[in-house]
Amino acid sequence: MALDEARKVFLSTAPKYQGVPGLVRKYYVLSQDGSTAGGIYLWRSTADADAMYTDSWRAFVRGKYGTDPSVTYMECPVVVDNLRHEIVAPD
After folding, report:
1. Cys-Cys link to 24, which of 6, 42, 73, 86 (CB 3.0-4.6 A)?
2. In this model, does residue 90 exceed pLDDT 90?
3. Of the CATH numbers 2.60.40, 3.30.70, 1.20.140, 1.10.10, which one belongs to the domain with range 3-88?
């Protein structure tokens, strides 16, 4: 997928993620060769994430991108926020 095409596709789905409970931020990502696309989601809790990743969400992603999504959970113990000039390390 070319970058311009990816931007159009991503913008078409972005409104779906506005106002989702517990979703702090979503980054759409595309590999440099355009062969892999995905998202990096920052959630308030695993429970909030689990509420999003339903069978209907998986079907939506499959229909939009032609492949089954995979979900990997990772902890985020420290954030460097250069916009706010702070380091965040929640308890």
Report:
1. 42
2. no
3. 3.30.70
